[in-house]
Specification:
Helices cover 32% and strands 22% of the residues. Helix 4 packs across helix 5 and helix 4 packs across helix 8. The two termini are 18 Å apart. The strands form two sheets. Strands 2-1-3-5-6-4 form a six-stranded mixed sheet. The protein has a six-stranded parallel sheet with strand order 9-8-7-10-11-12, with helices on both faces. It has two domains: 110 residues, 3-Layer(aba) Sandwich (Rossmann fold); 129 residues, NAD(P)-binding Rossmann-like Domain (Rossmann fold). With 245 residues, it is α/β, with parallel strands linked by helices. The model has no long low-confidence stretch (mean pLDDT 96). The protein has eight helices and twelve strands.
Length: 245
Amino acid sequence: MKRFGLIGYPLGHSYSKDFFEKKFKDLKLKDHSYELFEMEFLNEFPALWLKHRELEGLNVTVPHKEKVLKYLDRQDTSCIKVGAANVIHKEKGKLVGFNTDYMAFMESLEAWMGKFKGEALILGSGGASKAVQAGLSDLNIPFNQVSRSSRAGDYTYEQIKSNPEIIERYGMIVNATPLGMYPEIESKPDLPYHKIKKGTLMYDLIYNPSETLFIQLGKKQGAKTKNGLEMLELQAEKSWGIWTS
């Protein structure tokens, strides 16, 4: 049995298992399985590989994309570029980290945004945010970050609430936080949504639910919105390519 899976906490929102089980069925790979390994604390990570010695690859989701790096034997250039891993492949007994989030986000965004000229505002400062930053950098789109702490970003949410006109200068807003993700569907990034301009591009990396409050409130302002489902599918395909290369 060739085993793959996903680590993170919580995992109730994830479609990854459904995605890969469908792929295995389509490819008639009866000796392949994909499992959810809900893991609140990463000190459980080494034991996972000892318990499941047939494990060949993992996806990594919140909140472990950055901290998992210390457990890896080697990092691919994509992983080094972003400073976070969302894919791990066991190669000759060694754990190698990759970042397909970065490549998937860039590919998805480029096809959707058209001829965008302007600045982007990234919400969040974790591993997903780092992937977004790398993608925007490669697309030559200038950006700033918003975080709860002034040490982690260019703005805090409190600064933007106190100076709501800040939001008007950005033609793109990317939610790289888990705010609004199932089951916490009533949560959202704390922004002055009434200041969002018509035509602003609002990209939410969350895909469950398909329309978060972030997206719903953006639509009310006339924003062009997109969720993270396509990005999930792209990064999953790239994960599969890594595991089978």
